[in-house]
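3.2 Worked example (two chains)
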Amino acid sequence: MTTAEATDTDLDEPRAKGSKLTLILSVVLGLLGAGLGYFGIASGVIPLGDSASSEDAVEHDPVAARPDVAFVTVPTLIVTLPPGAQNEHLRFSAQIEVPREYQGDVEFLLPRIQDAMNGYLRALTAEDIEGAGALYKIRLHLFRRVVMVVGLGKAKNLLVTEFILN
């Protein structure tokens, strides 16, 4: 029995020492790899993604890359709502986003744009104005009318700045 006990004890000790050595070696190699990786990325030896140099940073300046657009302000429209609506009036104002070269053309046609907007807003029912997603639908229809007045490509977007029901 003593030889059997001695054999079991001898087998357990090398296993414990080997697993500790493997654990310590893997931790040391992991830390060494992390340190070398950090040094390589920080020094620029290993490029990571789209790391931009100072020359590229100047080219991608968000202020310099600003789109060449202008905003034409549509004067405030006040529309009386139809009978049965929860509110009496709608106060609406917007801005039209246009390419800078067409700003003068759109400003010249602003009375026609106001007329088209006013006619559409007065034709709306109470459900159209107070329903779910009303502002989104109204904005789309008004932008379509702006494009019909100024022409395709001369208006990029309609930005609603005021939509007040009172």
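3.2.1 Second chain
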Amino acid sequence: MRLSKLAGKEIINMHDGGRLGVVAETDLVVHPETGELESIIIPNHGNFFSIFKDEKYLVIPWQAIKKIGSEVIIVDLNSPRNNRDRLTS
């Protein structure tokens, strides 16, 4: 799949149905040697206190992506391997 095909797709967590963001609002981490996607980084806009602190980001490992549809990307962030609390500053 081409990177341009991911643009504009909403990212949805299959565990709770929550909307995490849109690929246009994200950064993609690409392995420098293989060119494979390693993770998607989404700004955490849902935290009220982020106005007063450094902005936080949610890192979604590529292994957490379960399905890429025509309009959405379904991810599983409830499994122990893909803990939803993976926020970094």
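3.3 Remarks
Confidence is low (pLDDT under 50) at residues 47-52, 83-89.
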